[in-house]
Amino acid sequence: MRKTLALLVASTALTATLGFAAWSATRESPRPVAALSEDGTPALPLILISDDDDDDDRKGLWGHDDDDCGDDDDDDDDDGGCRGGARNPAPAGSKLPPQNGLFGTGAPPQVQVN
Amino acid sequence: MKSLLATLALTTALTLPGLAVARPVTLTTTLSSYGGDGAYLALYVTDPSGAYAGSLWMAGGKSKYYEHLTDWYRATGGDTAQVDGITGASVGAGRTLEITLDLADALFDAGYTLHIDAAVEDMRDSPNEVAVPLTTKGAGTPVKGRRYVASFAYDM
């Protein structure tokens, strides 16, 4: 009987301790998001809602069938092409135009977007 | 003295054809305000028999989207070597892409046709958006595309 009573007291004390700690945490005044990383601790990890929203939400004619090729939304051109293992082409100015007989040997291409 | 003149004559004779076979040609493509993302454009040429002769420009740097430039892709198998050194960014709706290239004279008045394939994310692909014969007479005359290109013209 004494043993049972002792166990009950111990478990009640443990519950009360944990419960009080949790209750205290919820009672803290809210801090601005900016303040969370001001005290030298690392910023809270960002919660990734969706890493490929364009792929999933825009079931268009492209972009939905190349999940293995990385993120479609980035604008960098160095991710390598994936279709058939083809690489992205060398941008203008980085290489001479192809020797396809259409080009002279003069000035390199000039391009402007207005 | 005679040998010097002969040498000069020879070098001139060798140099002049090289200068005459190409000239700067400006290709101006204005997109309509279709309300979508930037357009990928493939500008390429077919010979008098309609066979692919080569590419002039690729607007859009990611080869994984090139399959949507369907005629160009069919002709080239998506070979990016075809557009190495002649590739730039995709072109936004309503914007004008102006490219000046040193093109061979032999392309003009010889039955060659300049084609533009266009593709826009989440919108319909548009192969052969523009097909215009390359003639000296046609220079400076704007033509309208089928879907995304408001006007295209070449000037020389």
Q: What keywords describe this structure?
A:
heterodimer; A: mainly alpha; B: 156 residues; alpha+beta; 3-stranded antiparallel beta sheet; 17% helix
Tell me the major beta sheet of chain A. Answer: none
Q: Roughly what is the average pLDDT of chain B, rounded to an integer?
A: 89
Overall pLDDT metric of chain A: 60
Instruction: Determine the strand fraction of chain B and express it as a percent band.
Output: 35-45%
Over the alpha carbons, how many angstroms does the gyration radius of chain A reach?
A: 31 Å
Helix/sheet category of chain B: alpha+beta
Based on CA atoms alone, the radius of gyration of chain B comes out at 18 Å
Rough shape of chain A?
rod-shaped
- Total discrete domains of chain B: 1
The rounded distance between the terminal residues' Cα atoms of chain B is: 40 Å
Total number of strands of chain B: 8
Oligomeric state of this protein: heterodimer
Percentage beta strand of chain A: under 5%
End-to-end separation of chain A:
89 Å
- Specify the number of helices of chain B: 2
Say how many strands of chain A there are. 1
Uncertain residue ranges of chain A:
22-43, 49-60, 70-80
Structural class category of chain A: mainly alpha
Signal peptide (chain B): 1-22
Protein name (chain B): DUF2271 domain-containing protein
Pfam families (chain B): DUF2271
Keywords (chain B): Signal
Question: Can you give a write-up of this model?
Answer:
The complex is a heterodimer of chains A (114) and B (156). Chain A has 114 residues and is mainly alpha-helical. Helix content of chain A is 27%, strand content 4%. The longest helix of chain A is centred in the first third of the chain and has 26 residues. The radius of gyration of chain A is 31 Å and the shape is rod-shaped. With 156 residues, chain B is of the alpha+beta class. Helices cover 17% and strands 38% of the residues of chain B. Chain B is built from two helices and eight strands. In chain B, the strands form two sheets. Chain B has a five-stranded mixed sheet, covered by helices on one side. Chains A and B meet through strand 1 of A and strand 1, strand 3, strand 4 and strand 5 of B. Strand 1 of chain A pairs antiparallel with strand 5 of chain B.
